[in-house]
Amino acid sequence: MATAEHTPSKRRWRLIVKHPAVRLAVAIVIVVIAIFALNSLAAHVKWVDVKADLVAASSVSLLTALAFTALSFVGISFYDALAVNLVAPSKVPFRIAALAGAAGYAISGLLGVSYLTGTAVRISSRSILARSL
To answer: In the chain, what are the domain boundaries?
Structure first.
């Protein structure tokens, strides 16, 4: 009897959580938190110091870093796309899964809380990209 009483409320919560507005709101909240966190973490960083460090670095080391960063984004994009294809074959186009994976990787790497931010970004971006493409 207790199970029957809780079933409608569980369904109601599932409908609320799965609503596109709620998913968008979660993504917006994460972005706002990220902006405040980055602002407080980067408050002591000065652009003059950043420019000086870039000028001091060799061109080879900067290009190598950019190349390996691009390679890691390609790798994680394929990893995400293959994972989505394994879980839901032919449900999400490869390019959408790859782009969502790259976006999730970028934001979760930036914020450092990958299990929270990466998942939210991937879910939000897949639903947005699926509607727009």
So the answer is: 2-132
